[in-house]
Amino acid sequence: MKKLIGLFCVLFSVLIFSQEDVYFGKKASVPAEIIMENGDIKTGFLQSFQNPKFVDADMLLLGNIEKKLRFEIDEFKFKEEQSSVVEKISINDLKRIVILGKDGSEKLVYDKMKLKTINVKGEIIDVKKTVVLPLDQEGKTNLYGINIVFTQNNRYTNNIYLPYMKKADEEYGYIVIDLNRVNFFNLGKVDDKLKKAIYEVTKDCAPFAENLDARIKQFEDDVKTSRKEGYEKKKELRKLAKSRGEGFDAMKIDYEYASMPYKDLLDEYEQKCRK
């Protein structure tokens, strides 16, 4: 898994040396639909909800990432109408948040989950945190992703994609790449932890799980290929953008190609395990 370890070395250098404050659509109020654990649906407005597809990073990012990036929140402020009194909704009481567009269409989806991770011994650990994470792909196993953006001199430079996976009907999701527990001394365990996390959310399908070792090797090649394709796409974008700048479009390209290998892997799992 040298390719993924190399990626983490680049990742650590970026995490240590990049710091900018970037605007990513944080708004005082956003239209939303909240699906409660008891099945009730509330439609109205979330107050002061950070709802970006991309989040800006700082030098203190390492450690407790979900809380620092405000995906671990105890309660949400909700109004049925802009003029209504604020109602506080506990994270324990909600199941899903749907951020709506101006026309009322679905824009972003966040699901609540508790989190587990894999330690260096390959053991499953309950990290004792409840989060709401942005949904990237829905299926038998859902893919969620945090897109951490880095800039230099107010210009976009790089985007790190942190994947999470959860069975659609389960309470716990898995941190596939856990930066909270990664350091230079345990980089060699990254591949084992990634494979174990993927196994836990796909083990119900024997045709897929039994060939997971080979699929992970293919996944490594997919990551490398996807990064190259994304780089070439950004080169084309720079030629077209010229003086206009390509910041947000480049972010979307990096996200698309970083998440693609995970989406392809779960698509294959879904196809092999249809009942």
Structure write-up:
- This protein is α+β, with helices and mostly antiparallel strands.
- Helix content is 34%, strand content 32%.
- The protein is built from six helices and eleven strands.
- A five-stranded mixed beta barrel has the order 7-8-9-10-11.
- The longest helix is centred in the C-terminal third of the chain and has 30 residues, at 212-241.
- It is globular.
- It starts with a helix and ends with a helix.
Beta fraction:
25-35%
What is the number of helical segments per DSSP (H or I, 4+ residues)? 6
Largest sheet: 5 strands, mixed, barrel
**How much helicity do the residues have?**
25-40%
* CA-atom Rg in angstroms: 19 Å
Low-confidence stretches: 5-23, 184-188
Q: Topology as H/E string?
A: HEEEHEEEEEEEEHHHH
Mean pLDDT figure: 83
**What would the principal axes of the Cα set say about the shape?**
globular
Look at the helices and sheets and give the structural class: alpha+beta
Protein name: DUF4369 domain-containing protein
Question: What brief labels describe this structure?
Answer:
6 helices, alpha+beta, 32% strand, 275 residues, five-stranded mixed barrel
